[in-house]
Specification:
alpha/beta, nine-stranded mixed β-sheet, 7 helices
Length: about 290
């Protein structure tokens, strides 16, 4: 066959920088997606929604917020509540005008057949949107979080398909958020840990890290391990950041904080009881 008769298939990305594109997602977004999945309608298999955030100076997509969008999905088509989507966007931007649409999310493992249709809609909202997937069904034994961008497969000027390409995703969180996320991604838990249980888990993790540092320093002193100046500076900075207080002062600080926390719990319990009692009295008055 002559070269002039060959059909040339080519990929065209909506952004020339998509191969080097990366995303960073805040844990609040993951928690919000999981909460929407738990509250989804009984007939819905998955939840989809809009991702909000910004583009950092280095080109990284910073995903900081999200909201669910009602939809109906079948094998052949996907129907989004576009009016609800735009109303929610306006409401969010009233609170934080700097947050813009950066993509959309869906629950489930990987990309599905209807994802191309939804991605096409968000491509009209923002150039080169991010598609975030959260496996809330623990298909492979743990919650899997991935991010994709779409590349178009075209014949000449005609687009015939879309290919989703995975991009690097950074999930950064502080220790308090890490405790909740570790419990959330487990396949089964008896209950959500309380504040004290979460603190206990953090302290146990801290003790393990201190034991590792102690073993490393001991090995360096004994000559079993070559010293590393970078690690030494990190250890020095960590030790230098510790407050110099006596045990009695430290115990007083902890006890005062605990008493304040218990007082807040007591006041919130009284408030809930008062609201419940007022609601029952109001209901009884309407009946009489």
């Amino acid at each position: 066959m002559a070269s002039s008769d060959r059909t040339v298939l080519q990929f065209s990305s909506s952004s020339s920088s998509s191969p080097s594109l990366s995303a960073k997602v805040h844990p609040l977004v993951i928690f919000n997606i999981c909460d929407c999945y738990v509250r989804r309608p009984d007939q819905a298999d998955r939840v989809i929604g809009t991702l909000l955030g910004s583009i950092l100076p280095d080109g990284t997509v910073d995903i900081r917020n999200s909201y669910a969008v009602p939809h109906n999905e079948s094998i052949e088509q996907v129907a989004l509540d576009i009016e609800y989507h735009h109303n929610m966007l306006i409401s969010h931007q009233k609170v934080n005008p700097k947050e813009i649409i950066v993509g959309w999310y869906s629950t489930g493992l990987g990309v599905t057949g209807g994802s191309a249709l939804i991605h096409e809609f968000y491509s009209r909202e923002v150039p080169n949107p991010i598609h975030l997937t959260v496996d809330t069904g623990f298909t492979i034994g743990a919650g899997t979080i991935k991010a994709y961008v779409s590349n178009n497969l075209s014949v000449g000027e005609r687009q015939i398909a879309a290919q989703f390409q995975e991009i690097p995703l950074d999930l950064r969180m502080v220790e308090a958020e890490r405790v909740g996320f570790d419990m959330l991604k487990a396949t089964a838990v008896d209950k959500i840990p309380s504040d004290l249980e979460g603190m206990e888990a953090s302290m146990q993790h801290l003790l393990v890290l201190i034991d590792d540092i102690y073993k490393y320093v001991d090995d360096v002193v004994e000559g079993r391990v070559a010293p590393d100046n970078k690690i030494g500076r990190f250890i020095s900075d960590a030790v230098g950041s510790l407050p110099k207080v006596t045990p009695s002062v430290f115990d007083k600080l902890v006890n005062d904080s605990l008493q304040d926390h218990l007082l807040l719990l007591y006041l919130s319990s009284i408030t809930r009881t008062q609201l419940s009692l007022a609601e029952k009295l109001n209901t009884a008055a309407q009946i009489l």
